[in-house]
Structures are given as C-alpha cells and as structure tokens.
C-alpha cells in the first residue's frame, strides 16, 4: 500500500518492559501502526492499557527501569527526509534532543507539567526556539524569537499575548495555561504532536474549545497527531484513525468513523456501551465487567478473555488471537473473526 | 408532590479576599454562592451542573455546613421533625452529621492511606458514637461493604492496593455507613475511566433504590447527570440559571448557558450540527459582571442584560430559567 511508503512514522512490534521487584512486567506488547503526515491517530484505552507508555517510548522519555525490547521498531522520517530508527538510539543520543521538541512535541493533561514554574512563559518559548534552530529556519535574535512567541500566543487564542509573554505559568487561568502549553509545543512547528489526555481534566466547555483549536492548528500546520484519551466521544471528534489498546496490546484499529460505527472487538463494543449518552432518562448503564488485571497478572491467550462475554473456552485462554482484516484498514485481534477471514 | 427533605432558601456564601502583605486587609469578597433556593424531595436525585468556578461545590458543602454560610436558611424535614440546620452548633451540629454525608471526587486523595478499609468505613460510626460495641461496628461495616460490592476479604487491607473504582466504592460505603437521609456526591465519577463510571453510577442507583437516600449529584458532565438525576439545576457564577426535570431540560434547554453546555458534549457522531461554543472562561467571581452574570459570554446578550439581573422564573410548570429573553430564544 502506498500509505505505508508515505508514512511519517512506522511502528512495528513495539514492546516495552519494566523492571520491578517481582521481575519484568510487560507494559506494551507488539504494538504497530502507521501514521501519515497531517493525520490524527487516536489511542484509546483505560488506565494501564499502555497508551502513554507507547508514546513515551517514541520520544524515549521512559523511566530508567523501562526497556524497549529487541525487535521493536519505530521509524520516523525527519524533516530532512532522512529516516531515523528511534528504537536503536541510545537514551543519551544527541539526536534525541533534535527529535524532542523539534520534530515531535508533547502536551499533557496537566499544563504545569510542561512548564517550569520559575521562568516566564515567553522565556520558555524562546528557549525552545533557540534550542531548535534547524526547525525554525536558523538562529533567531532575541527580538525575532519574542515576535514569533507573541504571534504563537495570539494564534492559540490568548488575549494580550505581549503581556502574557512576560508572565509566569501560575499567573494564567486553567484554560489559558492549556493554550500556552499548546503554543509552547507548536512554536517549533513539529511534524508530530503527541497529546496525552490534554482535555481530560477540563470542563466540557473548555474541552470543546481546546479540541476545536487543536483541529484548526493541525490543519494549518499540516502536522500529524497522536491523541491519547479514554473517551470514545473525543476520538469521534478528533481522530482519523483509531487504535484501541488493552493491557498493552492493540485489540482493534482502523478508520475512526468505521471503528465507532461498526466496532468488532468485544472490548471496543463494551467501551462504547459504557459511555453515558447525553440523553435523559434514568437507566442502567452497561459497565465493562470486572477490573483491568494488573500487568503482573497478564492472562494467557487473549488479554481480554477473562472479562469477555463471548470468550471461547479452550481457545481464547490458550493462544493470542490472530489479527484479522475485517474491512478497509479495519483490523481486529479476536478469534470470533478468524473463521470469517474478513468481510 | 411528596414533602421535601431539604429546603434551601436564599443561601449565600461569601469568602473574604485579603490583600497581600503583613496586615492582610480585607479588600473585597467572592460571592461563591449568591442567593440560591433549592428543594430536594425525599429519595430523589438532583443534578447540579456547572463549570469550575460556578459555585456548585461550595453550594453542596454549604448545605452540609462544611463551609460557613453567610446568609439564608437550610431546613431538613426528618421523621423526628424539622431541623433548622444553620441554627445548629457544636455538639448538636456534630451529631446531626449522621443525616448528611459527602462523597468526594478523588478516590485517591480522599482515603487515609494509613487506615485499613474497615477503619475508613467505620470512622463516621465511631466518631459519631452510633454503635454500642466494636462487634456492632464490624457488623454494620460488613453489611454496608457488601451492599457497595466490596469484597469483605478486603476490609483488612489498605486503600493503596485498590483501583479507582474500588476506592470510590469504599468512599460511598463510608458515606452511607451511618444511614444518612442526604448525600452530596461531588463529581464522584469524574476521575474514573468510562468503563468504571458506569459501574459506580449503577451502584449509586441501586443503593438509592434500597435506602431511599436523597442525592445532590454535582458534576460538570451533563451526559452523566442525564443518566442519574430526576431534576437538574444549572449553576453559573453562584446562581442557579435553570432548573427543570431532566427530560424537560434535555429536550428543551432554555438558558443559553445550558444550551452551550449541551453543545460542548463531544458526540460519537463526528461533525455535530449547529454548535454553540462559548468563548472564554467563567469570569473572576470576585468581580462578577453586572446584570446577568452570563452576559459577557452570551452570544445573544443585549443592553438590558448588562443592566438588570434576570429573575429565576417559571416558563413552564417546574421549569425555571433566569434569562430575560428565554421565550424569544427558545428553539
């Protein structure tokens, strides 16, 4: 497929283990996806599904106790056109600094995590510009950097940007901080933005504003995005493709519209059923039965089988289900579809 | 109509604002809750919806006497008679707390990590002296734990071992252990994964069916409130701007703010139609806008809205709205 050839990022067999007192624990297992320039991939899953760890691996921001297993591959096409195998870099490789903040930027749920509390917003934005001359068209003077930063603050919808430039993060309201964090991430015009639950802690009104803003900026800058969330409705608003993760594995993936309309994996179906609908009327919801097992107690076979209403004893608890293509780019890892061989 | 359990009239909570520096002069006040009337009927769930800064949490805590009330009345109509809650003080207030309890948002921060699950759940019983013996406490704790679907084997463990959903069940069991008539639930599912939210909401509905507890359910999420509440009050900058039965509110939201809250809910269908996106954030409650407090963000604001605060008035039976132009704007 030509899509793969044009990919900005190709992840294959990404596996991440953590060293704990009780031995190695697998947080991410054999994750693979392609991301084309300008597209948004939504990564959905509950807490502990491995969605954040997979993206931290992409920028090699994993804790020292983590190990990217041999055989993992994360190929990223740099602005220069050169391909970089991120999995092969040493954590101290200098090229990583160019990657982080220059080619790939991150935003988080908590904006205070992105900023240092002791420098002004403007100072931190200018530092990003000075640190990545290759991304911003050469070395900038102080005045040029200030001008770009103020422009970016205005672009993300911050009123009085010249005033905000000289303020500290704590002086901004919650919504403004979220916008400033986006401005800081995008000031270097990254090719890829990783957004880790950036709207989860926000009120719905603010969430709607920030989602709209991110859509606009993505289109304007032509960047690709990986958007992490546990909310399927947010995926419907922002993602082109979606990958549903459970206990470190992708259980279903494909075009967002298709997966949301015709979810195949019992886990995806359960997640969608559990979502409260904005309709009145007291009624029982359908929770996903049981709790997510600890990654220490990974079930054998399909990781979801202990909670699955459709499990086939003797099969689902024995071997990993095959990945079956059930539609154009729509893949599901479940034995229920193995026989049909797609539709 | 059945008799109300809780009646709130003209409730106001004002926090002083002090200057920085040595003398900390009082330089103003924040009207966190500004003249709220609310009745909760026995066994019903009222949803209280609004953004951060709307005063919804303060209102919930004021009814529980967990923050000082500046003005107004709070009355409980209990079987043993009517109680003027604001007249209670000291020991009498402490003893009254068995009738009203709070469930917190964050199940990670609200449970003492040094106490066992049994001791956490038992604490209100012991603090309020509601059980004669340790054996009686144990029995009551086991009973409520089972009702809240907490494995009784877990009672001797510490809360760190539990997931968010299990912790929230512990928080609910603790709130219900002394059999209160009234429960304030402050964003009880907002910190949980969607899959777990459904489980906790179901549990709350089951418990209400068994015990007949009255809930004030505080949330910023209208979708959640639609599932559980019989009536919904929408709050903005310290005031109730709309109050209606849930189905009525969902079918015919009248206040522009309520409509904006609805259109902000992300829908599973991409490309939603006709959205009313609010600009900006809730203004600083120390300096609320004149007239209708929503006028600075309202797409339909007219000169009158800047000058005259709208009354909360009935546009239909049981459907109250505080907007000068609600009839005209109604979709």
Order of helices and strands of chain A: HEEEHEEEHEHHHHEHEHEEHHEE
- Number of helical segments with 4 or more residues of chain B: 11
Return residue spans of chain B where pLDDT drops below 50 for at least 5 consecutive residues.
none
**For the terminal residues of chain B, how far apart are their CA atoms?**
29 Å
Number of E-type strands of chain B: 12
Helix proportion of chain A: 25-40%
- The helix content of chain B, as a percent range, equals 25-40%
Strand order of the largest sheet of chain A: 7-8-9-3-10-11-13-12
- By DSSP (H or I, 4+ residues per run), the number of helices of chain A equals 11
- Backbone shape of chain B: globular
Indicate the structural class of chain A: alpha/beta
Largest sheet of chain B: 8 strands, mixed
* DSSP summary, beta strand count of chain A: 13
Helix-and-strand structural type of chain B: alpha/beta
Order of helices and strands of chain B: EEEHEEHEHHHEHEHEEHHHEEH
Main sheet: strand order of chain B: 6-7-8-3-9-10-12-11
Integer-rounded radius of gyration of chain A: 21 Å
Written description of the protein model:
- The complex is a heterodimer of chains A (343) and B (331).
- In chain A, 29% of the residues lie in helices and 23% in strands.
- Chain A is α/β, with parallel strands linked by helices.
- In chain A, the strands form 2 sheets. Chain A has an 8-stranded mixed beta sheet, with helices on both faces. In chain A, strands 1, 2, 4, 5 and 6 form a 5-stranded antiparallel beta sheet that branches.
- In chain A, strand 5 and strand 6 (83-85) form a beta hairpin.
- In chain A, helix 4 crosses helix 5 and helix 5 (142-155) packs across helix 7.
- Chain B has 331 residues and is an alpha/beta fold.
- Chain B has a domain at 248-331.
- Chain B has 11 helices and 12 strands.
- Classes of the chains: A alpha/beta (343), B alpha/beta (331).
- Chains A and B meet through helix 7, helix 8, helix 9, helix 10 and helix 11 of A and helix 5, helix 6, helix 7, helix 8 and helix 9 of B.
